[in-house]
Amino acid sequence: MTTIFINIKELLQTRPREITKVSGLQMKVLPSIKNAYLLIKDDEIIDFGEMNNTCFGIADEVVDCTGKIVLPAWVDSHTHIVYAGNREQEFVDRINGLSYEEIASRGGGILNSAEKLQNTSEEDLYKQSKKRLEEIMQLGTGAVEIKSGYGLTVEAEIKMLRVIRRLKDEYKLPIKATFLGAHAVPKEFKDNKDGYMDQIINQMLPAVSDEGLADYIDIFCEKGYFSIEDTERILEAGKKYGLRAKIHVNQFNIIGGVTTGVKYNALSVDHLEVISDDDIEVLKNSETMPVALPSCSYFLGIPYTPARKIIDAGLPLALATDFNPGSTPSGNMNFVVSTACIKMKMTPEEAINAATINAAYAMDVTETHGSITIGKKANLIVTKEIPSFGFLPYAFGTNNIDSVFINGQKI
Ligand SMILES: N=CN[C@@H](CCC(=O)O)C(=O)O
Ligand SMILES: [Zn+2]
């Protein structure tokens, strides 16, 4: 089955296969073709170019995109969408003056979500999570990473990861699973963090590996959660099971997580609301992608990742949602792209690069996703009729998406 998209006002992010990420000044360039066509066969992009070089007769189906822009679907490389219930009450507590850290230190936060998840059946957890996945797909997400980390027992972590595996089996978009046993220290190990670390390394990891449930390993490297020493232990253990790191660092404090991530050749270091000059130097000449999560900064009222400092130093940057019940109850990549422009002073070109090609790098799907490239999957956003691509971040809060295609099929 072939489909041709014709009269595309502008086809964005057209790249040769060799480009796997863009850094520094390259991020300001968003290659595109105006008045374009795009030809797909089944689930794959097979041709594209200027309209005057095409012939309609060749496709089974024609989609007229007059006035509309076509771009690769968003790639969301950092989410926690498998969770139970919500944390609305903590939201109200924060409005009334408590901080995120205070709520956590009173036993709320991640531990609150863990209790809810432990008391939820695998079937119910799947049902709650698939709703969120379907919602983000409608919002234009065409590849997603999902973390465990609200289980915090062997049984509950495995339950989360099995739900992620079921989502992988049932849906056509690529899903990567990250094992985040070291997300918080459970109540039972309050005074025995090392005991919990031992449980992660000696019980959880072997069980996760036995069932092949994870692609990556993660840890919340932060004051009051897990130290650099803990991070080294977890990443070392993950390495033994062939799990590359994607880690939470520098959300509230700089404790050395970036250096440790780079030392272990992490695929990405995520959050970076605070970042030092040394961190920036360490990231240069590394293969680690810095990832910013602006919706988290928005929701918690914490600093935004200093994107200008990072990009102007010549580094790449990716954007993701961090969709989770505590710090970011939203999986809207359109909002992320807008907020990156509005609050982090990224240009529309930089933000779109960060949410597509660089985001695909941050979850290792650049072979197949993140750009309009012959041979890549036809995961696409077709916008409504809009004046230009800059209108996407400009008209924040407006739904500018007409349709989303996953593997060549309209969803
Ligand atoms: N910071 C650590 N983990 C999540 C939030 C977890 C929660 O509050 O439930 C994050 O990335 O923001
Ligand atoms: Zn997160």
From TrEMBL:
<feature type="binding site">
    <location>
        <position position="150"/>
    </location>
    <ligand>
        <name>4-imidazolone-5-propanoate</name>
    </ligand>
</feature>
<feature type="binding site">
    <location>
        <position position="251"/>
    </location>
    <ligand>
        <name>4-imidazolone-5-propanoate</name>
    </ligand>
</feature>
<feature type="binding site">
    <location>
        <position position="322"/>
    </location>
    <ligand>
        <name>Fe(3+)</name>
    </ligand>
</feature>
<comment type="similarity">
    <text>Belongs to the metallo-dependent hydrolases superfamily. HutI family.</text>
</comment>
<dbReference type="InterPro" id="IPR011059">
    <property type="entry name" value="Metal-dep_hydrolase_composite"/>
</dbReference>
<feature type="binding site">
    <location>
        <position position="322"/>
    </location>
    <ligand>
        <name>Zn(2+)</name>
    </ligand>
</feature>
<protein>
    <recommendedName>
        <fullName>Imidazolonepropionase</fullName>
        <ecNumber>3.5.2.7</ecNumber>
    </recommendedName>
</protein>
<feature type="binding site">
    <location>
        <position position="183"/>
    </location>
    <ligand>
        <name>4-imidazolone-5-propanoate</name>
    </ligand>
</feature>
<comment type="pathway">
    <text>Amino-acid degradation; L-histidine degradation into L-glutamate; N-formimidoyl-L-glutamate from L-histidine: step 3/3.</text>
</comment>
<keyword id="KW-0378">Hydrolase</keyword>
<feature type="binding site">
    <location>
        <position position="80"/>
    </location>
    <ligand>
        <name>Fe(3+)</name>
    </ligand>
</feature>
<comment type="function">
    <text>Catalyzes the hydrolytic cleavage of the carbon-nitrogen bond in imidazolone-5-propanoate to yield N-formimidoyl-L-glutamate. It is the third step in the universal histidine degradation pathway.</text>
</comment>
<feature type="binding site">
    <location>
        <position position="87"/>
    </location>
    <ligand>
        <name>4-imidazolone-5-propanoate</name>
    </ligand>
</feature>
<keyword id="KW-0369">Histidine metabolism</keyword>
<feature type="binding site">
    <location>
        <position position="80"/>
    </location>
    <ligand>
        <name>Zn(2+)</name>
    </ligand>
</feature>
<dbReference type="InterPro" id="IPR006680">
    <property type="entry name" value="Amidohydro-rel"/>
</dbReference>
<dbReference type="InterPro" id="IPR005920">
    <property type="entry name" value="HutI"/>
</dbReference>
<feature type="binding site">
    <location>
        <position position="150"/>
    </location>
    <ligand>
        <name>N-formimidoyl-L-glutamate</name>
    </ligand>
</feature>
<feature type="domain" description="Amidohydrolase-related">
    <location>
        <begin position="69"/>
        <end position="409"/>
    </location>
</feature>
<keyword id="KW-0862">Zinc</keyword>
<dbReference type="GO" id="GO:0050480">
    <property type="term" value="F:imidazolonepropionase activity"/>
</dbReference>
<keyword id="KW-0963">Cytoplasm</keyword>
<feature type="binding site">
    <location>
        <position position="326"/>
    </location>
    <ligand>
        <name>N-formimidoyl-L-glutamate</name>
    </ligand>
</feature>
<dbReference type="InterPro" id="IPR032466">
    <property type="entry name" value="Metal_Hydrolase"/>
</dbReference>
<feature type="binding site">
    <location>
        <position position="248"/>
    </location>
    <ligand>
        <name>Zn(2+)</name>
    </ligand>
</feature>
<feature type="binding site">
    <location>
        <position position="78"/>
    </location>
    <ligand>
        <name>Zn(2+)</name>
    </ligand>
</feature>
<feature type="binding site">
    <location>
        <position position="78"/>
    </location>
    <ligand>
        <name>Fe(3+)</name>
    </ligand>
</feature>
<feature type="binding site">
    <location>
        <position position="327"/>
    </location>
    <ligand>
        <name>4-imidazolone-5-propanoate</name>
    </ligand>
</feature>
<feature type="binding site">
    <location>
        <position position="324"/>
    </location>
    <ligand>
        <name>N-formimidoyl-L-glutamate</name>
    </ligand>
</feature>
<dbReference type="Pfam" id="PF01979">
    <property type="entry name" value="Amidohydro_1"/>
</dbReference>
<feature type="binding site">
    <location>
        <position position="248"/>
    </location>
    <ligand>
        <name>Fe(3+)</name>
    </ligand>
</feature>
<keyword id="KW-0408">Iron</keyword>
<keyword id="KW-0479">Metal-binding</keyword>
